[in-house]
Design brief:
Helix content is 58%, strand content 7%. By secondary structure, it is mainly α.
Length: 163
């Protein structure tokens, strides 16, 4: 379970860090105010770029904790700059690295309870990872990527997938 969760989250958070760096460079090279990119949303009822990055970090860090049998540590949503987003990604990756791989032994059958729309929902670690956490994580990273592409940041599939 460690390799299907933490290793995946860490790899894609590293890729997200590279996307954030490219967005910052793009803004600097074209004299685009950073706030224009950080607050951009694809549609009025969708979260802006900054929130997409925050949620990507949250889904990864919270899943790592829950699958290890821990209550997740909260991360305050205070980021307002590219540098602060990089710090958020680094903090999430560091938090996940603090869980020993052995903590994930048997995590596929561990009962995990989360709130979804105000209701407690309990599922196995396997279902939590495959049917909830990973889809949420990928959704927010893909949306962050799409916001950047929509705004002209020169990215391709390789930037999303990583090396």
């Amino acid at each position: 379970m460690y390799h299907r969760s933490v290793a995946v989250y860490d790899r894609f958070l590293n890729n997200l860090s590279q996307l954030v760096a490219k967005a910052e460079s793009h803004c600097a090279a074209r004299a685009i105010p950073p706030e224009a990119m950080l607050t951009f949303r694809l549609f009025p009822d969708m979260f802006p770029f900054i929130r997409q990055v925050q949620l990507s970090c949250d889904f990864a860090a919270r899943a790592a904790a829950r699958l290890a049998g821990e209550e997740p540590k909260p991360f305050p949503d205070t980021e307002t700059s590219f540098a602060e987003l990089q710090d958020r990604i680094k903090a999430a990756r560091g938090y996940m690295a603090g869980f020993d791989k052995a903590r994930y032994d048997g995590a596929e059958s561990r009962q995990i309870t989360i709130k979804i729309r105000g209701q407690d929902v309990t599922m196995t670690g396997e279902d939590f990872l495959n049917l909830y956490s990973l889809p949420q994580f990928y959704f927010h990273i893909a949306t962050a990527y799409n916001i950047l592409r929509h705004n002209g940041v020169p990215l391709g599939k390789g930037d999303y997938m990583g090396g």
